[in-house]
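$ ./design --mode recover --in tokens.txt
reading tokens...
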């Protein structure tokens, strides 16, 4: 009798088709709203990664690694006193999965760069083999506490002060993350000898940031990963698999 009941249950399950986890958890990096860019498409870059913050409440880091996520930028801090509530979990999870990880700081225009740099340094472990720090520079029109928008010269001065302090502590110059609007309005092309991580989800980097070299490209905010709920930002590294390894040798924390 037990065998007959088991057989009936198996038949019913097979008739229902694949479970949501099986269907949505296909072993691939997906995109719910893919864009065809001019020039080289993101899938043509061999090294892809992701970024994560509190909005990614649960990430299956092992499966992310299995489908080709090689690196992860994780939000650590914002301003001078706000630590991302998922930073510690993401930091440990990515590390255990063997994904090269790094931390980023979301800049707040109503706190001095010195205070923000110290808070970032106090929050992020100085761990050998991790990615350089990232300074996330973009306007935040939704901030309930800070509506300050300084001119470009002031923005660049504050950025440089943060970069100098954080560089001295981690032994690596931070990467600058930015958006097309912020980049243009604040003249970030003036920064030389700094690597950029560029957000552009509708145009290629060459179209959105004419003449600007870049190391990382955040090409979608609508990515999906197996067994990870919700949407994920997906990024690519600008180079071959060989140049990725060479870059890691030069730019990871010692």
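writing sequence...
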């Amino acid at each position: 009798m037990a065998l007959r009941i088991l057989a009936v249950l198996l038949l019913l399950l097979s008739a229902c088709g694949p479970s949501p986890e099986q269907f949505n958890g296909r072993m691939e990096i997906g995109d719910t709203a893919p864009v065809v860019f001019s020039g080289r498409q993101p899938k043509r870059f061999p090294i892809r990664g992701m970024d994560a913050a509190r909005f990614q409440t649960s990430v299956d880091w092992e499966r992310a690694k299995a489908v080709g996520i090689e690196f992860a930028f994780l939000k650590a801090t914002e301003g001078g006193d706000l630590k991302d509530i998922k930073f510690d979990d993401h930091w440990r999870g990515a590390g255990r999965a063997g994904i090269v990880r790094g931390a980023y700081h979301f800049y707040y225009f109503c706190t001095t760069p010195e205070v923000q740099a110290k808070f970032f340094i106090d929050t992020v472990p100085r761990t050998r083999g991790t990615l350089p720090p990232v300074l996330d520079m973009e306007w935040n029109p939704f901030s309930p506490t800070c509506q300050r928008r300084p001119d470009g010269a002031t923005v660049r001065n504050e950025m440089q002060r943060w970069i100098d302090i954080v560089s001295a502590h981690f032994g690596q110059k931070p990467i600058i993350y930015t958006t097309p609007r912020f980049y243009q309005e604040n003249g970030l092309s003036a920064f030389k000898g700094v690597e950029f991580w560029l957000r552009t989800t509708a145009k290629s980097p060459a179209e959105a940031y004419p003449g600007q070299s870049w190391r990382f490209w955040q090409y979608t905010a609508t990515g999906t990963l197996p067994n990870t709920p919700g949407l994920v930002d997906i990024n690519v590294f600008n180079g071959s698999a060989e140049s990725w390894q060479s870059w890691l040798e030069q730019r990871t924390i010692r």
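exit 0
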